[in-house]
Specification:
The protein contains 13 helices and 15 strands. The chain is of the alpha+beta class.
Length: 409
Amino acid sequence: MGWLGRIFRRKPKQTSFADSLSGFTPIFSQFGTNIYASDVVQQAVSCIVTEMKKLNPTHVRKKDNNDIVNVNGNIQTILNNPNEFMTTSDFIEKIMWSLLLNENAFVVPPYYIWKDEKGNTKKRYTALYPVQPTQVNFIQDASEQLFVELIFANGYKTTLRYSDIIHIRRNYSVNDYMGGDESGQPKHDSLLKTLELNQTLLQGVAKAMKSAFAINGVIKYNTMMDEGNTERALQELEAKLRNNESGFLPLDLKGEFIPIKREVELVDADTLKFIDEKILRNWGVPLCILTGNYTKSQYEAFYQKTLEPYIISISQAFTKGLFSENERSYGNRIQLYPKDLIFMDIGQTLEMIRLLGDSGALFENEKRTALGMKPLKELEGVRKQSLNYVDVNIVNDYQMNQTKKTGGC
């Protein structure tokens, strides 16, 4: 079974289908893909995926004083190297295509349990595998613990505790377990009508253009011809057309060329643009983003409206899937940092460096890399801070000392 065999879990005994508030049996067959025959849809989805794969998933811990620190450990290791097949950007790209294609994305994180020298039970993850099942069944055992049975295209199936997988949903509305419509499927009825209209328009344009160049004119012979003469005339015309290289057809006095005036009515540009934008609105991708001709404010709007909800969903799904309730209570979470996503011009970058640099929040090499410069060996670990700032915890003592030195009261 390859790597799938390594994530196998034995199906619990005495199971039944999980309860569903909607009354549907929780069996979900994946997935509808016919809308992706449209180049406009592919381009729109690709825009979102391309931006999302720039994210930096990071294990952080929020302390009691609201300070957030990076945590270098097992979780961060697998975020940096999810599995033997994928880089981090590959991993995010796979998740996003699955989510946008199927309204659901599943990630299986294999792990093993061990005890430390103090006898404490520990969990260590070994990889992160994005999987694409063809059917998903939600079941529960006698204790009402929820399991998910994943069935793949090759017939392989595995059953896992639902708490042991990472499940990301899109358009999570009427179904209890899955994103999409009431049966856990992508709901693209209205979009398909628009795509059908778009295809009809494009086919009409193609046919009109072909017909425009099919017949250029009529040859009128100024004599009465029988069937044999007509055939010979056609052969003669064919020979002249075949031998002609100048673009002009020589005729004798018996023939008269009557040109056909071309008046081809194509679909106007505004109509085609309206159809394209109507399709793009389904994915929250404006035309300026698709063409790459956007302003900073347009990109910020795209980020806040389209990308940020996905960032939040993925961050929360990974936090819930990789950390226990106790670990989450200590502030552990997965944060997808969008630094490489945010659009800043050189002036804004310099202002960011000044503000963070003055407060000592940036290493010197971070300042260089933010400007596209190589880090320097002699600047490794060097961090500078402006003397115009003081720690808030000692600001009162600092002011009192300054007052005493100046003799103030």
